[in-house]
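BUG: 3D viewer hangs when loading the predicted structure for this chain

Environment: internal workstation, default settings.
Expected: structure renders.
Actual: progress bar stalls at 90%.

Input used:
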Amino acid sequence: MKRLMLFLVLSSWTAFAQDDALFRALRALPDVEDVTAVKADSMFKAAYEIRVRQPLDHANPAGKTFLQSVYIDHVDFSAPVLFETEGYSVTRGGGRPRELATILHSNQIVVEHRFFGTSVPDSLEWRFLTTRQAAADHHHINLLLKTLYKRKWVSSGTSKGGQTTLFYRYYYPGDVDASVAYVAPVNLSQEDPRIIKFLRTVGTPHERERLKDFQAALLKREKEILPLVRDYGAERKLTFSIGEAMAYEYSVLEFPCAYWQYGSDTTAIPPLDAPPDSMLRCLDRVATLFFYSDQGIKAYQPFQYQAYTEIGYYGYDITEFRGLLTAVKNPTNIILAPANTDLTFNPSTMYSVYTWLRDHGDNIIYVYGENDLWGATAMELSGKTNAIKVVKAGGSHRTRIRTLSPGQQETVYSALESWLGVRISR
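Structure tokens produced before the viewer hung:
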């Protein structure tokens, strides 16, 4: 018993000493202006939020700056590091471990994307929201924290965060030892036509027809459903400056995109003559109306700006519904981007990223779901690199390593072991 008590005391003291050492080390880092202890998940010994001073324009470090939120979940200085590049804001969620952190038993660093959440400059000068500037943010953080964490680093992200991981790897290929991009599109135009082509062939003919019929019914019954949209907004304190009818019609056009992205089930779609509230509930459950409210537009404006100036998005094919739309005449999501702002698309960014990944992007794993909308613009491998692409049969945007087949998981684990010099428990 005495030996057990002594072990527990020594273990607690060691963890406390390491925790205290980390706190002091973080506070001593240049450009770190705040260090706050936060709740740590049970797999971590300590967790902190730090605020890092970043140049608004990395080409002009003496100019304006902003504070960027970074979350550090600590296991051990001798463990590898997962560097998670978020594409949006970070919801702390009690410091939950990301999938790769649990696989690798690693430390975890999660970075909120510039212009999202709490990582927002005093004035939104949109021209500084670029893939290059965001990658420079990550490079700055990497240089700071590599003075503490000196083992292997793997960068990762999901969806837009996965895109961010690829951009970071393109601009700073030597910063990390490997990258895992989950369900990350590589769009090659402002509204990539491959999305529409995908929607014409994904799933079964019955499923596609069922979705089309549901959309048509929603549009035909718009007058009886619109009053419920007003009630929906009032209950949730949402406003629709683009107009309730336009928000509703955009949500209808978005329905198959969201359906295939997140893997819905046609059996959950109500009969076409169902009560209007059932029709609206199904629409909102799959293609939320919040996205088209003033509040939703504001929350996602940084994404829309990036989409329409650099990273690409998609439009809608309204051939089947042209006579049913009353509010939407020219269906493009560009209406959700910031107004009175230059939205000229720069095609060279994505072309350069794509060609570099194709020809030089070693030690990268791409994870996709077969039926995910964003799989339509998945990265294509050329055989010139050792990159790996795994596609889950029937998978959606929720595809992760843990959802892959045993054989695919083994492919991923073996590559990570080789690139990072670790041993993964099977």
